[in-house]
Amino acid sequence: MGNHTSLTATELAVCQQMGITPEAYQQANSDGGDSQELEMLIAAGRQDGRIHGPQTEAWLRQQGVAACRSYLDKQPGTSAQALKNGLTDTELAVCRRMGLSPEAYRNANNGQNR
To answer: What percent of the chain clears pLDDT 70, i.e. is strictly above it?
Structure first.
């Protein structure tokens, strides 16, 4: 798989931008990639805000699993744990650092708009 001459200039640029090797790109996109994993990654990215719209979603579908995973890893978002507690990742980190429960944090900040 060391030969990546079959990639287009655009695909090579995507590899460089996403920080993945051409070989990883080819592997992820052989046979259409693992469509079930891709769908799970996209669903998670939509849920936590790392995928911002239908154009990004469509683009990620074209790129395949490896590029999608790389993209999502580099995007700020809200983790499932933070969503469950109704806080941002930053607020959840403050709770952990200060030894507060998410409920105590919300109660202490109730009514404060920042």
So the answer is: 80
